[in-house]
Design brief:
The complex is a heterodimer of chains A (781) and B (101).
Chain A: H1 9-14, H2 18-46, H3 57-92, H4 100-118, H5 147-176, H6 189-220, H7 232-267, H8 274-288, H9 303-331, H10 340-362, H11 365-371, H12 375-405, H13 411-429, H14 452-482, E1 512-515, E2 521-524, H15 541-557, H16 560-582, H17 604-633, H18 646-671, H19 675-705, H20 714-745, H21 755-780
Antiparallel strand pairs in A: 1-2
Chain B: H1 5-41, H2 47-69, H3 77-98
Helix pairs in contact in B: 1-2
Classes of the chains: A mainly alpha (781), B mainly alpha (101).
Chain lengths: 781, 101
């Protein structure tokens, strides 16, 4: 695209610059905060007194569910990624993220995901009302027929696509785009927090994506994964909490590690035991993938597992204790300056300690049986996620605001904000710990149980807490309008972002950031990034592809013609994107030098493909695991050959295995400059892939004719969803392959430049590997 | 540019020839293992034995594809470590689910 004025609407719609996208994330997440906060106030009004009739039961259920889902997924994570987008490239000395268009697409998918979920309020039956955990079988069409839940599911799928793109992008950026001398250990704390967060996202989101995919299929196509007793509640709970527990740390790490940077600056001391803090966080990340069972103590899971989960859960509190202790020791002897960011940082630490300690109680099976589903739990997780995470992120916004806006804010108003925030917070959430016998998710309560005073206090606190947010927005607004110029480094920070202008120029640094062996950072006057000049990039395709996905889901759920329009837009957008690719408009060369350990020899696109495949491995692992789970729980299952033709499956296996051979032969050809071999190999791969899909279509048609339909039972649900997801991956591979073939016929690949062919192969062979398991599982066993 | 390309090319082509042979050999192995999987279906063994045999062969096929077609065999150590960790995560989830967590 040509030059676009920086103050135009088109800039914000088509931008791919990380700082612009960071601002878009910030505004969007604050919008969702206000929306979900308003819902929370409705809930608190309803609970002020016993037997209130302010909300109906249905309205209450919708308000509490949407509040939870939006706060977790459309406020807390996106606001952390607002800062990550803006700050991480600055902290590592990069010009942008590794894949700017994918970064823009992440944002638009998130926004359209939120919008489609919110549309539920305007449909018959209203928005999703199942509680944020969306437990089965309440989530199925049998018990919750309203389209609002399907729309929320579509929103979650868009969100997960957004998360996958972001995850890959940040991992590649942090691993491959650090300036020379900036080793992993020298990275600022916030960048470390984002690295750990995206690593957890990479592995924790796919099981939830699998669950939502199965739910969408149940609700739209009529499969019965979550309706059948052999799958149902327990299967959903496994997949949800395998995601749900690490999600706590996904929400917490950016905040906790942003605190690290704030503490360093406002104490003028390095983090005490930084290496140990990082090691503890890595240990906590790994452990967080192993403790999902503690959310399932009351589901009747194996008693031995309950004991193991108790021990693991108590263990996970140790690394976080270490981190907080290190932070406290950083304060000791430091030259503490109680500016607004530091006040919020200290407040966050105090509140997180309380939330962490109440969490340790919950790891006990005996206590968990008593407090599960009560306001004690509500109080506990609000102390960690609001007290710990949100308060720290407010500190982080105040901390980096002068860098982002170029303006200072009023300290006086900032301190007023902190005071009202903390008073409101404590009056709101402390009384909940006394409501240890009051069930949550119930729209009213009877008088006479001793719950009245604490509920009244919580509601008063909610309104005081709510009042603190307009003050926050006013502070930021006043700062933008009339704040003092901030200068490059108003707080005296020690990390790279403070060496550039406030706000930074589009290319981030007027020179080359350098970190020397002693850790000293400076900007040299050399040309940008080792001689690679930065150019502003705009692209319309991230927003149009995301809009197309929105329309396709909307149409599939409510009105089919809309889906057709979406499909047409998607095709046009993908063609436009491919044309940009063919014209190499977005080819951003890597700087010749940089700190890239441990992926020094792995080119950034290749690393991105590998990261994506790691996530895909967990996605298919979850789908296959779900199949194994329901199969082992089922008394009867069709014998091999009874429903599915073994011959058909075998033919498809040979087709796909051969397509892997032709793909790798195409690569071998281009490596010696054999263009004919390259084209023949790619064309053969395409034809074989197409043959696989056609054979699958014929097979599906045949078994459908014989009565093995979507709703035939668990064998049908498992088969159609798992092989359908695989087929969709084959189809997506063919779309990419069509682009590669077009480029090959234009002579776009040479002996020296053929990396795209290699990276496509990584994906194609992965799809082959998945089928290698699906074939025996569905056809032979 | 005066680079000694003619001197390099024969070695490169030889190396590629060897690679092509390896690719074809792997494909033959994949086909053979698939045929064995098909033969196992009707064998007079317990269903568990058949299932373990077939899944063992499937794992072997997956390993061959990963090592030789995805070229994992020559990849950086951390690419392999991350791959292994992702697979371990998936396996951990499946094991946890079916053993009754």
């Amino acid at each position: 695209m040509g030059e676009i004025p920086r103050n135009s609407l088109r800039r914000w719609l088509f931008t791919t610059n990380h700082k612009d996208i960071g601002i878009l994330y910030l505004v969007t997440s604050l919008y969702f905060l206000v929306a979900a906060g308003a819902l929370a106030l409705l809930v608190r009004i309803q609970l002020t007194y016993p037997n209130m009739g302010f909300l109906t039961a249905s309205a209450y259920n919708q308000a509490i569910t949407v509040h939870g889902v939006v706060m977790l997924l459309w406020f807390l994570s996106p606001i952390a990624f607002a800062l990550a987008n803006y700050i991480v490239p600055l902290q590592i000395g990069a010009r942008d993220l590794a894949f700017p268009r994918l970064n823009a697409m992440s944002y638009w998918l998130l926004l359209f995901g939120g919008l489609i979920a919110a549309l539920g309020f305007f449909t018959p039956g209203g928005a999703i009302d199942t509680g944020w955990t969306v437990y089965a079988p309440l989530n199925t069409a049998k018990y919750s027929p309203q389209p609002g839940i399907t729309l929320a599911g579509a929103g979650l799928l868009l969100l997960m696509a957004s998360v996958t793109l972001s995850t890959v992008n940040f991992l590649v950026t942090i691993f491959r785009m650090r300036v020379k001398g900036l080793s992993l250990l020298k990275m600022p704390m916030f960048t470390w927090g984002i690295l750990l967060t995206v690593f957890l996202m990479l592995l924790a989101f796919p099981p939830f994506a699998a669950a939502v995919l199965m739910l969408a299929s149940d609700r739209i196509l009529g499969t019965v994964y979550f309706l059948a007793p052999e799958g149902g509640a327990l299967l959903w709970t496994h997949l949800l909490w395998f995601f749900g527990h690490p999600e706590v740390y996904i929400l917490l790490f950016p905040a906790l590690f942003a605190l690290g940077d704030v503490l360093v600056t406002f104490t003028k001391r390095p983090i005490y035991g930084k290496k140990i803090v990082i090691a503890a966080a890595i240990a906590g990340s790994v452990l967080s993938l192993m403790v999902w069972g503690h959310h399932m103590f009351t589901t009747g899971i194996n008693p031995v597992w309950r004991k193991i989960m108790t021990v693991l859960t108590e263990t996970i509190s140790i690394p976080f204790g270490v981190i907080i202790l290190a932070y406290i020791l950083t304060l000791v002897g430091g030259r503490i300056r109680l500016r607004t960011p530091m006040l919020f940082a200290l407040g966050s630490i105090a509140l997180f300690i309380i939330g962490g300690i109440t969490g340790v109680f919950n790891s006990s099976v005996a206590i968990d049986y008593g407090v599960r589903g009560t306001y004690w739990i509500v109080g506990h997780f609000h102390f960690t996620l609001v007290g710990g995470a949100t308060t720290a992120l407010v500190a982080a916004i105040y901390y980096w605001w002068p860098k982002m806006s170029g303006r200072m804010f009023s300290e006086k108003l900032g301190k007023l904000h902190f005071t009202i925030y903390m008073i409101g917070y404590l009056i709101l959430y402390l009384p909940m710990h006394a409501l240890v016998d009051m069930p949550r998710r119930v729209y009213t309560y009877p008088a006479g149980y001793g719950w009245e005073l604490n509920n009244l206090l919580a509601t008063i606190g909610a309104f005081i807490f709510a009042l603190s947010w307009p003050i926050f927005f006013l502070i930021l607004y006043k700062s933008l309008r009339s704040g003092e110029p901030a200068g490059n480094n108003p707080w005296g920070g020690w990390s790279l972002e403070w060496l550039t202008k406030s706000p930074p120029p589009p290319h981030n640094y007027d020179g080359e950031p350098v970190v020397d062996d002693s850790g000293t950072i400076r900007i040299t006057t050399l040309p940008t990034n080792g001689g690679h000049a930065y150019h502003e990039h705009y692209s319309p395709w991230p927003i149009t592809i995301s809009l197309a996905a929105f329309l396709i889901f909307l149409g599939a759920i409510l009105f089919l013609p809309v889906a057709v329009a979406g499909l047409l837009l998607l095709v046009a957008s993908v063609v436009g994107l491919a044309k940009e690719g063919l014209a190499e408009k977005f080819k951003i060369p890597e700087a010749p030098e940089g700190a890239r350990w441990p992926f020094t020899q792995v080119e950034k696109v290749k690393l991105g493909v590998w990261m994506f495949l790691y996530s895909e491995a967990v996605l298919f692992g979850s789908l296959i695991g779900s199949y194994v789970f329901v199969r082992l729980n089922s008394a009867a299952w069709p014998a091999p050959g009874e429903v599915l033709s073994i011959t058909n499956g075998a033919v498809n296996t040979f087709i796909l295995l051969t397509s892997s051979l032709t793909a790798v032969l195409a690569l071998a050809s281009v490596r010696v400059g054999n263009q004919t071999g390259l084209k023949a190999g790619l064309l053969a791969t395409f034809i074989l892939g197409l043959a696989f899909l056609l054979n699958k279509a014929v097979e599906w048609n045949e078994i459908f004719q014989h009565g093995f339909t979507f709703s035939s039972g668990l064998p049908a649900a498992a088969f159609y969803i798992t092989t359908g997801a695989h087929g969709a991956h084959v189809a997506a591979g063919l779309v990419v392959l069509a682009y590669i073939i077009a480029k090959a016929f234009k002579g776009g690949y040479t002996r020296e430049n053929h990396s795209t062919v290699e990276y496509f192969g990584l994906y194609w062979h992965f799809v082959d590997i998945v089928w290698v398991f699906l074939f025996p599982l569905f056809y032979l066993i | 540019m005066g680079l000694p390309l003619p001197a390099v090319l024969p070695d490169l082509e030889e190396a590629v020839d060897v690679r092509v042979l390896v690719y074809v050999a792997v494909w033959v192995a994949l086909v053979v293992f698939t045929v064995i999987e098909l033969m196992l279906v009707g064998m007079p063994m317990t269903p568990i034995t058949i299932a373990l045999g077939i899944l063992g062969l499937a794992s072997l096929k997956a390993l061959l594809i990963a090592l030789f077609y995805q070229h994992l065999i020559g990849e950086a150590a951390w690419v392999k470590i991350f791959y292994a960790f992702a697979l371990l995560t998936a396996v951990g989830l499946v094991v946890g689910m079916i053993t009754g967590i």
